[in-house]
Amino acid sequence: MLKRVKIRKDEVGLLFKDGLFERILPSGKRWVWTNFGQNQVEIVSTRELELKHDHIRDIILRGDLVRFADVVEVTDLEKAIVWIDGKVERVLTKGNYVFWHGVHSLLVDVFDECEVQLKNKWLNQIIKSGLLDEYIQVVDLKDRQRALVWCDDRLFAVLSAGQYAFWTTQRKIRVEVFEATSIRFEHGEMEEILRLPTAKDEFDIVEVAQGSQGVLYQNGKYAETLGAGRYVFWKRVDKYQVFQVDMREASLDIIGQDIMTEDKVTLRMNAIVNYQVIDAVRFVSVSENSAQALYRAAQLVLRAFVSKVGLDNFLSEKEDLAHGLVDRLAGRAADWGIRIHSAGIRDVILPGEMKDLLNRVTEAKKAAEANLIARREETAAMRSQVNTAKLLENNPTLMRLRELETLEAISRNTNLQVLLGETGLADKVVKML
Question: With bands split at pLDDT 50, 70 and 90, how would you rate the model's confidence at 155?
Answer without folding.
Answer: very high
